[in-house]
Specification:
Elements lengths: L1 E3 L1 H7 L8 H13 L2 E5 L6 H11 L8 E5 L9 H8 L11 H8 L4 E6 L5 H14 L3 E7 L8 E5 L14 H4 L3 H13 L10 H10 L4 H9 L6 H16 L8 H15 L2 H10 L8 H8 L6 H13 L3 E6 L2 E6 L1 H13 L3 H23 L4 H10 L1 H13 L4 H17 L3 H14 L5 H16 L3 H17 L9 H11 L3 H15 L5 H17 L3 H18 L3 H16 L3 H15 L5 H17 L3 H19 L9 H15 L1 H12 L3 H8 L8 H11 L2 H11 L4 H8 L3 H15 L4 H11 L2
Parallel strand pairs: 2-5, 2-6, 3-4, 4-5
Antiparallel strand pairs: 1-3, 7-8
Helix pairs in contact: 1-3, 5-6, 8-10, 9-11, 10-12, 11-12, 13-15, 13-16, 14-17, 17-19, 17-20, 19-20, 20-21, 20-22, 21-22, 22-23, 22-24, 23-24, 24-25, 24-26, 25-26, 26-27, 26-28, 27-28, 28-29, 28-30, 29-30, 29-35, 30-31, 30-32, 31-32, 31-33, 32-33, 35-39, 36-38, 36-39, 37-38
């Protein structure tokens, strides 16, 4: 499943859009008359491009957004609700996604959802669509498929091939351009051969080519790309030969699927031996992949790694492989019809199983390397890379389940991917994979111990205490068998969270403190940070603000030391919450503002919603009632649309209820309602800029509080010396410490304050002395 936002629809269509004005009008009218419209037609006829263009043109008609779910790579219909939730930017870690829970979240939205390539998920898709259309009156659905859903209320629009000149038509080039297939060929040919245009000399051959290809857009585009090496007349002769072989001389009206197959066969024949091999082997990827993945999975003695790049360049030149520019680097993909053809070639050659194994091994390696680097400064880039690889990770996990002796590899992959599923809002999907993998591989092992801990943790994130309890029982038993293995005690964190959900905070503290003592010098940094987070929550709920603050400070410092971002935002939230509980409101606000600044870089909507609510409580405590109501409104929208309820920390609900009652009393119901409603229309970024002000424009006390309360005494000394213009070497000499230690202090200061330069530290110190 791939996500394309409304803003990305135009960017995703990397080539110009030709023709289809009539169909675009029919789509608009169809979605006005019916809430479900399905575009049907043969592969390669242009359903996806047409849907993408229509969604872009209609985006202003849907105030709550246009969302795109590409389903070609999704093989398991059980993951469809989760995939649609992700496509609609709902990153709720705490909801188990079903058709009903998805409908609950979308019932107030006026939005357009595009379901692209769902023909292999007809039953699952029909059930989901029926539920959404029944319970979400503002939702419209546009689908593309080779066959319709045949569900109640569905309207079907067959997408036909582009118009071509009649057989007997002889006319000037200008007249030929009236036909959409001719215009498409000319547009794509000009991209392959600069300055190419249809003229009176090549016009007859181009017209006949488009007729032979039945005006199927994909076939026309493949032909046009071949102009790099062949003239239109050469193309026509070769294509005619291909059709003669396939249909024994019947050159009359060709079935559309046979026409498309002929054109792809012909394009395949035009490739070099290495290009054909790479085409087939790249079909093993379920979605985009980078060059490193292509080289690792596709290279062998028959296709040496040194020849991969040349073959890949040739396939890009021939428009077989699509090159996408990403922030993380260039990625490559096959159109679905092209990928299916390559998969057939791979299967016929008897290479499919071996390539699936290589593909699986690469993504196990990718996941474990990502996990190794996850608790560090590359976290944001790693999260972005992971989202691009979701479909390939699914394919790798499917292979692990399909082959009896490969499930242990799946357990390794899933455990490494746990945090990536959480950060991406795919907790339900992660739980589904863990359940299937654990059922499939029951042998005691270290990977199983780790997978059990991760599976129980994800279950607890969704308050599924019953499932977590069963998993934890096995975890305790295995821990006895692997007592010397550090991974054996990971379950203690989960047992503590389970105790917290039963309000047994004292027992949770015992488990967590034992875990922290054992693992404070281990490599289990993610589990250690989670233990410290939950320790802080337990102590705060029990009224021990000093210990709560100590654990969250330790967690923050651990994250800062390693350059970690995601959990650091949770530590900052916790520090602000603890300071608010202690009545230290300036300090609380300084922490929460730091958290919000970090969230603008690392978008964890659940932490962001917690932060907004805590800021609302702080505003209420400092008699800024209108701001408190607006912040509560902004948090409400974020939870409703993207994050989910306060279910992870249900004991926080009492603070929300109490402070909002206080604000209501202060403002009166009418003023409260107006302020709350105003807040519901603010995005998270707007809250930080419009309501609270940019960081540099905030109250002086906030800035002073940030430095005073976030920096240690030594770090404040270092900050003063930075403000004096000293280098790290000079700071080290002044304080009689090593230069490395001085560098570390400066990096910690920058990270804690959310700064990027030493000049910002100097400016903050100067402001504090005014």
């Amino acid at each position: 499943m791939a996500l394309v936002s409304a803003e990305g629809l135009q960017e995703a269509a990397v080539t110009s859009f030709v023709g289809r004005r009539t169909e675009l009008g029919e789509i608009r009218r169809g979605l006005s008359a019916s809430r479900m419209l399905t575009l049907t037609g043969v592969g390669g006829v242009g359903k996806t491009r047409l849907a993408m263009r229509a969604a872009w043109e209609m985006r202003r008609s849907f105030p709550d957004g246009v969302y795109w779910a590409e389903l070609a790579s999704l093989d398991d219909g059980r993951l469809l609700p989760q995939s649609v939730a992700t496509a609609m930017a709902i990153r709720d870690q705490f909801t188990t996604w079903t058709a009903d829970t998805l409908a609950d979240r979308l019932r107030e939205r006026r939005a357009l959802l595009v379901l692209d390539n769902f023909e292999h998920l007809l039953d699952s898709c029909a059930k989901l669509v029926a539920t959404l259309l029944t319970r979400c009156p503002g939702l419209r659905i546009l689908g593309t498929s080779r066959e319709p859903l045949r569900t109640q209320g569905e309207r079907v629009l067959p997408v036909l091939a582009l118009g071509v000149p009649p057989d007997d038509m002889r006319c000037p080039a200008q007249e030929l351009r009236r036909f959409e297939a001719i215009r498409l060929f000319e547009d794509r040919a000009a991209a392959a051969v600069p300055h190419f245009e249809v003229d009176d000399r090549n016009g007859p051959a181009v017209a006949r080519l488009c007729r032979r290809l039945d005006g199927i857009p994909l076939a026309v585009e493949l032909a046009a790309a071949s102009l790099r090496v062949l003239s239109p007349d050469d193309l026509l002769r070769r294509l005619d030969d291909r059709f003669r072989v396939l249909i024994s001389g019947n050159r009359g009206s060709l079935p559309r699927h046979q026409t498309l197959r002929a054109s792809i066969d012909w394009s395949f024949a035009l490739c070099t031996e290495h290009e054909r091999a790479l085409w087939a082997r790249m079909s093993i990827f379920a979605a985009s992949c980078d060059v490193a993945a292509v080289e690792a999975v596709c290279a062998d003695a028959a296709l040496p790694q040194g020849d991969i790049l040349t073959a890949l360049t040739g396939l890009v030149d021939k428009s077989i492989v699509i090159r996408d520019a990403r922030e993380t680097g260039a990625c490559y993909r096959l159109l679905e019809t092209i990928r299916q053809y390559g998969r057939e070639v791979l299967h016929t050659a008897g290479q499919e199983q071996e390539l699936r194994k290589r593909h699986r091994d690469w993504y196990v390696k990718f996941a474990e390397e990502t996990r190794r680097r996850w608790f560090g400064p590359a976290q944001l880039d790693l999260a972005q890379q992971a989202r691009l690889n979701d479909a390939n990770v699914r394919a790798a996990l499917d292979f692990c389940l399909a082959v009896s002796d490969e499930s242990h590899q799946g357990l390794r992959l899933a455990d490494a991917y746990r945090d990536l599923w959480r950060v991406g809002g795919l907790t339900s999907e992660g739980r589904s994979w863990f359940a299937r993998l654990l059922d499939n591989d029951v042998e005691p092992s270290v990977p199983r111990i780790r997978a059990l801990a991760s599976a129980s943790y994800l279950a607890l994130m969704q308050n599924d205490l019953a499932t977590a309890k069963g998993i934890l029982e096995e975890s305790r038993k295995l821990a006895e068998d692997f007592g010397q293995e550090q991974s054996a005690t990971l379950y203690q964190v989960c047992e503590a969270v389970a105790a917290m959900q039963k309000h047994d905070f004292s027992n949770a503290i015992v488990l967590l403190e034992e875990f922290v003592a054992r693992h404070q010098d281990s490599d289990e940094l993610d589990w250690l940070a989670s233990a410290l987070l939950n320790l802080g929550i337990c102590h705060s709920v029990l009224g021990d603000g000093e210990r709560a603050m100590a654990n969250w400070t330790k967690m923050r410092d651990l994250c800062v030391h390693h350059g970690e971002t995601w959990r650091r935002t949770w530590a900052l939230w916790g520090l602000g919450f603890a300071a608010w509980r202690e009545g230290d409101w300036d300090r609380a606000e300084a922490f929460e503002l730091q958290c919000m600044d970090a969230q603008r870089v690392f978008d964890d909507t659940t932490c962001a919603a917690n932060c907004l609510e805590t800021m609302s409580w702080i505003a209420a405590s400092t008699e800024r009632s209108e701001q408190a109501a607006q912040l509560a409104g902004a948090a409400h929208t974020l939870r409703r649309d993207r994050s989910g309820p306060l279910s992870q920390f249900p004991f926080l609900t009492e603070y929300q209820d109490r402070t909002q009652a206080q604000v209501r009393q202060s403002l009166g119901e009418e003023r409260y309602a107006r302020a709350f409603k105003k807040g519901t229309h603010l995005t998270f970024d707007q809250v930080t800029t419009q309501l609270l002000g940019e960081p540099a424009a905030r109250r002086k006390s906030d800035r002073e509080g940030t430095a005073e309360h976030l920096l240690t005494k030594r770090e404040q000394e270092v900050a003063d010396l930075v403000a004096q213009g000293m280098s790290n070497k000079q700071i080290a000499e002044t304080l009689v410490i090593s230069q490395h230690t001085a560098e570390t202090h400066v990096e910690h200061i920058l990270t804690k304050l959310g700064f990027t330069s030493r000049s910002q530290i100097a400016a903050l110190v100067a402001q504090g002395k005014k």
